[in-house]
Fold each of these.
Amino acid sequence: MNALPRLAVTLGEPAGIGPELVAELAHSDIAADLIAIGDANLLQSAAASRGLRLALTADDGLPLAQRAPGSLRLVHEDAAAAVVPGRLDRANAGYVLSTLARAADGCMAGEFDAVVTAPVQKSIINDAGIPFSGHTEYFALRANAEVVMMLAAGSLRVALATTHLPLAAVPAAITREKLETTLRIVHADLQRKFAIAQPRILVLGLNPHAGEGGHLGREEIDVIAPLLAELRAEGFALTGPLPADTAFLPGPLAEADAVLAMYHDQGLPVLKALGFGQAVNLTLGLPFIRTSVDHGTALDLAGRGLADPGSLLAATRLARELALNR
């Protein structure tokens, strides 16, 4: 029997749009064994809010050759408090984290081939007294791994050397050690997860015009360019440091498998402008595949049947593709 890839799907913030998007996912034609991790009653209620019928069966871990439309297997986790769409409740913060822990541990144990995550609300988890900065950091800690955030929209892939930092803190964070670790993770996962034998990576400079020969900053001269030269000598296919304002033109992108941006708003506005609603967030460097949506919990849309499932569908399709590559 040709078994379908087993993809764990977490429901995210229970008061957000995640549960209803997962219900929509169940009605897609994606050829994967979809195992929802979360509260069964919440998922059925979310499906009803979209006028969907949902067939849930307890996950027994056995291979599945075909998934019926509108069906999901389920690893049930009880929500701690009743859920009202659009209304956050700190009592459910622990429940949200328990679904993430179950998914990560299941992937590392070989129970699942990948995890796809619906969006969480970081603020309410912190309000509950639990330090939490996001999925990426949580999974990195759970797996004891160095990780890199990447977003993908079609053939455009943008990885980040730094993530959620104030702009004033970025230059000090662009160290040789940090940049080398990031590039090695991106290179390795493009090979291992995307099956690209010799990844080509465009590396952006930090400063306007990539420093313009040192007149607009020396990070390119002192840190970025020397490291790229060393890695090229090892066989890495690296281009840069490039000015960010021209690196995303069709010509340079045609010669690249990924772009490494130095900070969040250097690379992601371009990607989201080109592919918002269809973009996918990936965590590279983990010992398992993790993809996610490119948007937040959209509390104002929750329970109204208006949320677009496009990004979750794209994230699930990519997780399936990467699982098959491995």
Amino acid sequence: MSALWRINLWVCGFFALVTLACMGLLVHQALADVERELQSAEAVVGYLSETAERDPASLQPRLTRSLRHVRVRWLAPGETARLSEQNGIDGWLGRLLFAEARHSARVLDLKDGRRVQIAVDPRDEIDEVWDSLQQLLALCGLALLLSLLTIRWAVRRGMGLLDELLRALQQVSGGQLNVRLRAEGVPEARQLASHFNHMTQALEHARADNAHLTRTLLAVQEQERTHLAQTLHDDLGQYLAGIRAQACLLRLVADQPATVERTVRDLEHNCEHLHQGFRALVHDLYPVMLQHLSLAEAFGLLVDQWQMRQGIECQLRVGLQLPALTTSDKTHLYRLLQEALTNIARHADASQVRIRLQHRGGRLRLLVRDNGRGAQQPPQPGVGLYSMQERARSLGGELRVFSRPGAGWALALNMPLEVS
């Protein structure tokens, strides 16, 4: 059932209740009025009966024909007196309003031999009450019709907006994010259109940003693969080729102790470089030390290595009694700090960095600040900031970045801890 039909049913039910209540009040008031009219009509019946008994000639049909609420009926010889029965609505109203009046008829045998029946006549009162009921029903029916037409107009107008919104949402679900609603009509419709347009505009921008980030991530992935291939080929591959050549040389100079000794030293040197290269490569791919060191020790090692490579003073303060974290959480925190330090080295132009990691109030807080040149925050985050935000979201925390020209950058991570 549509909303319009449900509203119509509710309105019809309300009008039915109001109409019944008004009819009840009208009938109740009619009962009080009928009681007064009944008393007057009975007095008239008594007066006419007494007058007819004293002077039958005074009771003329032309005088009694126009009496209200009183009926004078002349009976033929041998005719029995009876009260007329009414059917339908008139009969029901007569029985309801004049139940006692139906038994107040008088039959008189006049001195001149005529017989007459004088009784209270309820038909005038029944007609008045029935006319009032009809007027009430007509008024309520007209009010109901006007209300239904007004509701239909208003609902149709609102449903038109909903239909337009539904079509727009179907287009959005189909991937058409450039759809917009017309901001016109009532204030609510304009407000709804404004919010919908802002939503689709934000979705369109988000899709464009996601496409840009996807392209950037693919480019970074290819750069990492290229860097890995170059490292394996140009660095490690050369050492492996040198080791193989030196191993072949040993067969040829086995009878030359001095050459053998020099070749062995070269082999040891090349193996050491090869081992260092593999360790650096593995460290870039995955921080293995997290499996063997605590988070504070891993942070300290990362800061020391970064400080030696970049030549930038970096101070690390770690609070006491850090909570135990899962390997996944430790990895996300480590990579987040690593990405923050990388961004500082690339963009901040800083000479000093402060890092603080502390546990307080059931939350783990990480703060990274530098004294670089700072900048206005870009409207769209880059890959580095986006990856840090995603890692913070994976940790269930909130990452906030602050910057002001000339005041450096500040990065704050607030991470809730599960209570075991």
Amino acid sequence: MPKELTRIEIFATVFFAMTLQDNVDIYLDLKLDLYGYFTKGTQWEALIAIIGIYPAITTIFLNYYPVHRKVIHKLGYIFVWSGFAVLYEYAAVKSGYFYHNGLTYWYSALCYPILFYILIFTLKIVRKLIRQSTKSF
């Protein structure tokens, strides 16, 4: 994979994504039980997704994001990834790795574009902070 992101950009955006995902899971999974991994409650196996899959997807998504392209390309990119995420979620539910308990694929389809945009926005903030920190010296 060609590296379009610096190490600090990867670290900051992945750390943000994992923190956001953990906070969302606390409320939607553990408190409201709308979905979960394997069975209700916490499982060590869920760390595979939290530590393995989410950081990789975040890095790949942001690395190939068409920063210098037209808005239509950016929106298309976000919607293609959102479609992939819904298909991945469907496969995870069918395999028993993930379960729905009130959450539907429609809710997911509406949330994924927002979540991907939040990742892009986070990367913009990180890049701005990096630029500002280099100017202060």
